[in-house]
Amino acid sequence: MTDGWNWRQPQPPPPATSGAPAGSPWWSDALADPWRDPYAPAAVVVPTAPVSTGPQPEPVADPNAPRRSLAPIMLICLVTALLAGGLGGTLGYVFATHSGVGGGTQLGGAPLAAPSAAQRPPDSMAGVADQVMPSVVTVRVTGAIGSGFVVSPDGYVITNDHVVEGSDGTMSVSFSDGSSTSATVVGRDPESDIAVIKVAKKNLTVVRLGDSDSIAVGDPVLAFGSPLALVNTVTQGIVSALDRTIQAGDPGGTVRYYAAIQTDAAVNQGNSGGPLVDAAGRVVGVNSVIRSVGGSDTEAGNIGLAFAIPINQAKRVAKDIIDFGKARRTVIGAEVSTSGAGGSTGASGARLRSVGQGGPAAIAGLKSGDVITKIDGHPLEDGADLIALVRKYAPASVVAVEYRRGTKIQTASVTLAADAK
């Protein structure tokens, strides 16, 4: 491109050479090369088959050869169409009935009846809950609420002592089916935190009682009750620890000692007195205490630390209350300090401040000043551990005791006894 100021007349083209027409832009052999000469005529050349030099026979059709019938092909097509139609109709019906469309509800008509409750195997958690729930009750006492469970067809119910503590002797009890009735206190044992009440109703569904000595850490459990007044509540967890010693009670009131089953099942206020149940539906504990970060009882809530009285202990205490009107308390026949560990050395254990003459400890050879470090293999931190573990056993039980006297470790067998009062 140029702006024209140095324009020059173009030079004429050089004369054409031989073999090419004048004015042709191609080289001398372009006329002989149809692929390079754009002015060459175009043609499509179809290669022909090689011609055979010998004679070729004409193909002859066999007049006797059988002709292929179309009947099998038509039959296959018909069967395939019928099968496809039947399968499509069946799948359409199944999808329609399961999704609730199609034949479920007609426009302007009444809906079909709701399906019955889903069935679960009896050994599933849902099956266990369905089995146990009719035996669980909600206990209402002067504005407070707790739980309990039926242990006899004629109306005896186990609950916590602290649930009925503020009662004037009567209370209201409701069942999982919504029915309610009155109940009266049969007896209480504040130190074990077990009470027995009796409802004014007969032919009740009774729980199955298990063996709390046969459970292990990691076993699945269900907690039943009415936490925060939410009746008919079930929560699931595992056994987190065994023989967890707990000292509880209000200042100036009754001090309660528990050698408890620890669980991480969600337990809150209102669960107290309800059953802790194993995977077979047997009661293994009575939900009683929770540990919380709350600053007061009204602020306490579940943090995965709940404690239940072993059912073997609760059953024994409840039977004493029903049979004798009060429970026998198991003792070792010695006084211990509960304010600290076992002595001035700071070592763990329960130091015996005094030993009762003729009592179980004295008969076993224990003396004042001895420090009990283990009972039946369970290590003791202080005197509260000893009290809680001793009360777990029935009177007349024989337990192995390891104790320290000075610098020497000794052992003894102690036959526990019932308190005289």
UniProtKB/TrEMBL annotation:
GO CC terms in record: periplasmic space
Gene Ontology molecular function: serine-type endopeptidase activity
The entry's keywords: Hydrolase, Membrane, Protease, Transmembrane, Transmembrane helix
Residues covered by region (Disordered): 1-33
GO-annotated biological processes: protein quality control for misfolded or incompletely synthesized proteins
Ranges in a coiled coil: none
Residues of the PDZ domain: 321-382
InterPro entries: PDZ (IPR001478), PDZ_sf (IPR036034), Peptidase_S1_PA (IPR009003), Peptidase_S1C (IPR001940)
EC number: 3.4.21.-
One Pfam family matching this protein: PDZ_2
Entry's transmembrane regions: 73-96
Family: Belongs to the peptidase S1C family.
Protein name as annotated: Putative serine protease PepD
Lineage: Bacteria, Bacillati, Actinomycetota, Actinomycetes, Micromonosporales
